[in-house]
Amino acid sequence: MKKQFIVAGLAGLLALSLAGCTSNGGTTTPSTSDTAATSATAAGGTVGVAMPNKTSSRWVADGNAVQSGLEALGYQVDLEYAGDDIPTQTQQIDQMITKGVKLLIIASIDGTALTSQLASAKAAGIPVIAYDRLINGSPDVDFYVSFDNYKVGVAQANSLLYGLGLTNKDGSKAANPPAGPLDIELFAGSPDDNNATFFWNGAMDTLKPYFDDGTLVVKSGQTDFAQCAITRWLLESAQTRMDNLLTSAYGGNGAGLKGVLSPYDGLSRGIINAMTNVGMGPDIAGGLPVVTGQDAEIESVALINQGVQFSTIFKDTRKLADQAVKTAQEILAGNTPTANNTTDYNNGVKIVPSYLLDVDTINKEDIQSKLIDSGYWTQSQVDNGQA
Ligand code: BGC
Predict the structure, then answer these.
(1) Largest alpha-carbon pair distance within the chain?
(2) pLDDT of 134-150, one tens digit each?
(3) Residue 9 Cα, ligand 1 centroid: separation in angstroms?
(4) Which mutation among 58, 200, 269 tests ligand 1's pocket best, with the greatest number of atoms within 8 A of CB?
(5) What is the pLDDT of residues 83-119, one digit of tens each?
(6) Is the CB of 233 under 6 A from ligand 1?
(7) What is d(CA 66, CA 64) in angstroms, rounded to the nearest whole number?
(8) Residue 224: CB partners within 8 Å, gap ≥ 6?
(9) Ligand 1 proximity of 195 Cβ (cutoff 6 Å)
(10) Beta carbons within 10 angstroms of residue 382's beta carbon
(11) pTM metric for this prediction
């Protein structure tokens, strides 16, 4: 059943043409994607890379960076995006297995929906790396590369506290904090994404003392993960929920709302749309509430630069892609991949050995040093809000 595509005798040959590269969320994208040329140099066989969607610029950056890293090592890459549709992703993975890929790198849409695909991969001897999002409920995940998801949540909550004036940027208590109680609202990510709970737990553990002593209040009373979660991380759903919160708890015009914990830039933009639709704005009395984010998506970096969104958490997709490529190389060479966490990521069946990377918080004053100087985005992309 399993077809193997073996390109013999070309080991070590690299024909990377990096002329005319484009900057795309920090990735270097060869401007020519000549499949024939790529396969001619594919000494190592094909690696299947499954990404969730192209609507979030981070996954495009991730996909491009993983692809170019693998191609530089002599692998051919089958890179697929699933439009956030679970059946599409399962089908894409099935096809990769049928094609006989050497290894799978998967950023899942629903972390519990891939058990049978992973069982087929195992039966065909294809190792699986879960990329960014853990795949749950399967014994057949070999490794997990991600950012430290709990720390992302801690960073989001710390940024909210800083934006509210309760702490300094370094996390120390502010000398003259505003008198509480301060009204805030909470958003969480997609319930089928394992990361969403880690972000939430990191944030809630950090905010808890401020809820306990009455400094922070969630006026809507919606403080459970299930009440705050946004399925599939959709901007439109976050906007609708924020509309409803503004109507039900803030007199329809947002009066008194000081901050919103948002775990992802797409949600943050939906939340900000809802606020501006009821007449709130950065230049309007009271200003916009503090809104956090994640991913340093260019549309949100532009909003941060304009003083509209307060912060985002920068996950350098170049580093994650690099780690995934290193891990793939170790596995394909028959070695045990390097882990830095072997305790925290239990997928319900086993603890999956993991490599976790650190993240940076970005406020307006960090855009130059962290995003532009490092080549992740250019000044003109920040100015235009477009990749
Ligand atoms: C990723 C985040 C991203 C979110 C929405 C999560 O699994 O870790 O970086 O913001 O999905 O795409």
Answers:
(1) 71
(2) 999 999 999 999 999 99
(3) 40
(4) 58
(5) 999 999 999 999 999 999 999 999 999 999 999 999 9
(6) yes
(7) 6
(8) none
(9) yes
(10) 19
(11) 0.89
